[in-house]
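Protein data:
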Amino acid sequence: MIAVIQRVSQATLHIDGALQASIQQGFMVLLGIHVNDTPEDVAYLAGKIAGLRVFSDEEGKMNLDLQAINGELLLVSQFTLYAATRKGNRPSFLESARPEQAIPLYELLINTLSEKLGKKIQTGVFGADMQINLTNDGPVTIIIDSKNP
């Protein structure tokens, strides 16, 4: 699994012009699920995301995690993170998990993060055409790959 984590001051997600999700300070996470991913990848990634200390403490140092700031999280599945672009100009998505494999792992990550953070997280809709607006705070963007711990 690959997670692209952006520290945001706000983020919104719309589907067909309707507001689906909205958060204030926290993380906007784009999630790529690989054909070889398992629940162990979910557990690893959930622990890393929940414990990631990139919010400023009273001295201005990146030292606080999402819970310490009472931050919010918006999680969006994005199969294009596993695009293969070596040959030609049209990406191949053969490394991205098919919905029958990806959806249960996506839902497991939603539940695991909600438990770790002690609150419901916001999500997109798997497979939907979504429009996301966000303000990247910093900017801070971190990429975590469960296959490269």
